[in-house]
């Protein structure tokens, strides 16, 4: 009887140990106006955390990304995402 209880206890411990969740990445973005010269002429641009262009997000598959966006502009701000997947060719070193 004790071997059955021990087996059941070990099974529960093993199953609870494999519970894992994909990692979370957290960002805070402050969107403001600023001046930059992307074409050589100073002009008004939209900055994210004082940067133009905005920050990169480096992530891997299945990461959960949480971005808190604070819009300090005087108009609504629309943000779109482009997903770029890079795969190294066979035999290429990283």
UniProtKB/TrEMBL annotation:
Residues 1-20 form the signal peptide. GO terms for molecular function: copper ion binding. Residues 30-87 form the Plastocyanin-like domain. Keywords: Signal. Belongs to the multicopper oxidase family. This is Plastocyanin-like domain-containing protein.
């Amino acid at each position: 009887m004790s071997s059955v209880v021990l087996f059941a206890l070990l099974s529960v411990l093993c199953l609870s140990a494999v519970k894992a969740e994909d990692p979370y990445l957290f960002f805070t973005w402050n969107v403001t106006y600023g001046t930059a010269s992307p074409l050589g002429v100073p002009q008004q641009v939209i900055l994210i955390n004082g940067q133009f262009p905005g920050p990169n997000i480096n992530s891997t598959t299945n990461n959960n990304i949480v971005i808190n966006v604070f819009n300090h502009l005087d108009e609504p701000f629309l943000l779109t995402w482009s997903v770029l997947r890079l795969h190294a060719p066979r035999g290429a070193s990283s």
